[in-house]
Amino acid sequence: MKFFLDTANLDEIRQAASLGVLDGVTTNPSLIAKEGAKFEQRIHDICEIVQGPVSAEVVSTEAEAMYEEAQKLKKIHRWVVIKLPIIPEGLRAAKRLVAEGVKVNMTLCFSASQALLVGKLGVAYVSPFLGRLDDISHVGMDLIRDIVTIYRNYAFKTEVLSASLRHPLHVVDAAKAGSHVATMPFKVFDQLVKHPLTDKGLAQFLKDWEKVKDKVL
């Protein structure tokens, strides 16, 4: 499974990248605005750190405007992936971009039927938002399983990018379901490595070392 961070915070991205397991970043205008940064410059800076796919989202809602916006976004850096919403206009824009070899991430996926359409287009990623489904009493992970099954049935090249992950169990369950990518806030990423028994065991090892270190030959 590939790990992406869902953030625009450079410090968080650097910390995750330093562990050697960060594969990409998903971001949007809202996340960048939270950082008080200039949009295009922040996308460029993120790409330079990650050296992997960085999804940059359009704000237009009409196909032609989405396409024109995508032309500007893809010039920011070679690692930019164009993020489009799964609406009819988004599908139209995606078809045109895919035909030109542009990598596209279709976002705000909440149904298997939406994902089926996206898979037929051959975009790079589809982003089902499982946490938001959980919020309205739907089992978001069922959507991940359904999409993975459909894509395997037809050998679609589109990768399933599980989004709206709220805790480490979301990440693990998405991995068990066969999701290709998991994108998450830094808080969730940071929790993946933590376990109280690891901390307890390390503390005990160090305590025992203090008892024997002076006896080492």
Catalogue the unreliable spans: none
How would the global form be characterised?
globular
The assigned structural class equals alpha/beta
**CATH uppermost class:** Alpha Beta
The number of domains: 1
Count all strands and give the number.
8
Q: Describe the sheet with the most strands.
A: 8 strands, parallel, barrel
Short characterization:
By secondary structure, the chain is α/β, with parallel strands linked by helices. The chain is built from eleven helices and eight strands. Helix 8 packs parallel to helix 9.
Give the helix/strand layout.
Layout: E1 2-6, H1 10-18, E2 24-26, H2 29-34, H3 39-50, E3 54-57, H4 63-74, E4 80-85, H5 88-99, E5 104-109, H6 112-121, E6 125-128, H7 130-135, H8 140-154, E7 159-162, H9 168-177, E8 181-184, H10 186-191, H11 196-212
Parallel strand pairs: 1-2, 1-8, 2-3, 3-4, 4-5, 5-6, 6-7, 7-8
Key features?
217 residues, alpha/beta, TIM Barrel, eight-stranded parallel barrel, 8 strands, 53% helix
